[in-house]
Amino acid sequence: MVAGTSTISWESTLDIMRELTDLYKGNETDDVADAGMISTMVNDVRKASEEMRSSLASQVDILAAQVNDAEARCERENNDEFSKKMDELSQREESLNEEVKTIGETTEEIEKRINMYKEEAKAETEAMEECESTKMEEIPRIKHAISLYANITGIKFDYSKEGKLMGHIAIPPERGGPQLQH
Questions:
Q1: I need a labelling partner for 135 at 20 to 30 A (CA). Which of 6, 40, 106, 167 fits?
Q2: In which element (H, E) is residue 167 found?
Q3: pTM of the model
Q4: How far apart are CA 120 and CA 110, in angstroms?
């Protein structure tokens, strides 16, 4: 009835066993005793099956608890690692923010100094231009005064000596100067 490769359910197996037991109950043969033992064996198999099922269920529960513990440990490790990394990144961010603040302050100070130096340079340039303008106005006046002194006194200036005012005075005899003899 049952093929070697096919599987049947436990209920079907029990039904077949009951049929066999009912079939052989009336006879006093060894088969009847064997059939009686079958029902005992079925009960024994059932008990063993229940015990195995209970044992496997407890083993599954133990393994599930171990897996949960391992997952929790892994998650804690990952959380700890993540927390450490986040702390490192937060410290780095604070450090960089301080550097940016310092650089910003330094840049602001340098820009103020640049503006101050620009103002100083502008004032100096204006002063130099004013001085140059004054010199340009005085040059004709000074030239005129030197020419006047030269005509009145007969001074012959020696321009070869830089930084010194040198020359010769020649007073003509008609103005009271010495007379030269030839």
A1: 167
A2: strand 167-169
A3: 0.36
A4: 15
